[in-house]
């Protein structure tokens, strides 16, 4: 029976434990560590000879990381010749001018970024697919290529798809949506960009209800205090008692309001059971450029959400495209930036790690506690012993398990 000796769990870093699982990859026991047999190879050894038995070297174990909001269809399309001014409006406009890629090209890019994400510890990712493409033929080719990449990587990472709805009602698009429904986890969209945001929200919720899907929306990706799409979404979800999962990503405009308004909105969001996803890398890059001084941070007010009992996930968003020319799929980098940009404290470190593991896994998979017996052994092992060391050391080494199989290791050699 496979066993990982001598590790700390992120939620209980003071105790050393062993994690055992069966041949099907289900955790069977998490027990206090006392001693290990002789000749158990280190998880970081250059040549692991003991199949299924590892010494975790007092490392820290998290559930496999979850990237709850990405755009894999755009990933790795950035070129040095691109001349965006660094705003979201320019990125949208210029992305529509990017020459179309063949399905083979899309497949190669998506495979490349998925392999990279796995190497950093991600075992579940949700990606949005845009409705900006000029015709459904091009969209179909992109979607087919992404489906092929999902199938090719299914033993290492689970991929969920969210199809973004256009900003205005489109009967042809609605018909196409029905054909894709079986491969979708939710409907997306960016109603804050729509000419009629309330009508767009209502239409997307209508489509989701008809198809039995949740919604996962880009909301208020702006620092304009007059944009109130989050409030309109919350009101509509409560009015119709929408039963599907509702995710709101970005959610920046609320940060420009005073704290009393923030708390009022957060209270309603909690009542509507809307989940929040913060995307600090992309939004710190895109937002605030219009102000030459006293620049706002492009991040949702994470402290307010926490104080009001609303959980927030952290995710990568765009990676190496017009919206964000950097980014490599390493969620520890995202989490580290969130600590700074949201001005969090060391006492928030475990919560931030939960925001890239436990919290989004609960939303996307319904898995409330993935590190208990009967759950699949999707694990990330880090060569540190505490959450504080994760962010003070930022370890590059990672060992990644998917359903009990060691699928990836990043090792660091220092001479």
Task: Give a topology summary.
Elements: E1 3-9, E2 12-21, E3 27-32, E4 53-63, E5 65-70, H1 88-95, H2 103-119, E6 122-129, H3 136-152, E7 158-164, H4 171-180, E8 186-188, H5 197-211, E9 214-219, H6 229-240, E10 246-250, H7 259-271, E11 274-278, H8 280-286, H9 302-307, E12 312-314, H10 331-341, H11 349-354, H12 358-365, E13 379-382, H13 387-393, E14 398-402, E15 405-410
Parallel strand pairs: 1-4, 5-6, 6-7, 7-8, 8-9, 9-10, 10-11, 11-12
Antiparallel strand pairs: 1-2, 2-3, 4-13, 13-14, 14-15
Helix pairs in contact: 2-3, 5-6, 6-7
- Alpha-beta classification: alpha/beta
Biggest β-sheet: strands ordered side by side in the sheet: 5-6-7-8-9-10-11-12
Q: According to CATH, what is the topology of the largest domain?
A: TIM Barrel
Domain count, please report it.
2
Strand content: 15-25%
Count of distinct strands: 15
**CATH level-two architecture of the largest domain:** Alpha-Beta Barrel
Overall shape: it is globular
**Mean pLDDT reading:** 93
Top-tier CATH class of the largest domain: Alpha Beta
């Amino acid at each position: 029976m496979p066993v990982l000796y001598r590790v700390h769990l992120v939620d209980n870093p003071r105790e050393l434990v062993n994690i055992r699982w069966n041949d099907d990859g289900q955790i069977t026991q998490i027990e206090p560590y006392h001693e290990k047999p002789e000749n158990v190879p280190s998880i970081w050894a250059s040549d692991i000879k003991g199949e299924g038995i590892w010494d975790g070297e007092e490392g820290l174990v998290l559930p496999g990381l979850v990237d709850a909001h990405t755009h894999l269809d755009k990933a790795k399309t950035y070129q040095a010749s691109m001349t965006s001014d660094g705003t979201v409006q320019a990125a949208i406009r210029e992305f529509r001018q990017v020459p179309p890629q063949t399905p083979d090209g899309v497949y190669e890019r998506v495979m490349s970024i998925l392999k990279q994400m796995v190497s950093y510890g991600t075992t579940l990712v949700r990606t949005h697919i845009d409705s900006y493409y000029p015709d459904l033929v091009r969209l179909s080719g992109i979607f087919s290529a992404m489906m092929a990449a999902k199938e090719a990587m299914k033993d290492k990472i689970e991929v969920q798809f969210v199809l973004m709805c256009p900003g205005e009602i489109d009967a042809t698009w609605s018909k196409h949506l029905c054909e894709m429904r079986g491969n979708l986890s939710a409907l997306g969209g960016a109603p804050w960009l729509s000419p009629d945001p309330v009508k767009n929200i209502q239409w997307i919720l209508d489509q989701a209800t008809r198809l039995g899907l949740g919604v996962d929306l880009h909301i208020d990706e702006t620092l304009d205090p007059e944009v109130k799409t989050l409030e309109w979404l919350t009101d509509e979800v409560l009015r119709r008692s929408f039963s599907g999962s509702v995710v709101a990503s970005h959610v920046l405009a609320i940060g420009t309001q005073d704290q009393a308004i923030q708390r009022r909105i957060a209270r309603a969001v909690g009542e509507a059971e809307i989940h929040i996803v913060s995307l600090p890398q992309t939004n710190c890059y895109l937002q605030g450029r219009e102000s030459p001084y006293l620049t706002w941070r492009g991040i949702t007010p994470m402290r307010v959400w926490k104080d009001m009992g609303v959980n927030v996930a952290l995710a990568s968003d765009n990676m190496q495209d017009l919206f964000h020319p950097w980014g490599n799929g390493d969620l520890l980098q995202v989490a580290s930036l969130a600590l700074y940009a949201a001005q969090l404290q060391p006492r928030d470190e475990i919560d931030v790690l939960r925001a890239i593991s436990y919290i989004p896994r609960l939303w996307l998979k319904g898995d409330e506690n993935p590190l208990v017996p009967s759950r699949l052994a999707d694990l990330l092992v880090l060569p540190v012993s505490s959450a504080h060391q994760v962010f003070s050391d930022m370890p590059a080494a990672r060992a990644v398990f998917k359903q009990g199989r060691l699928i990836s290791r990043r090792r660091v050699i220092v001479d």
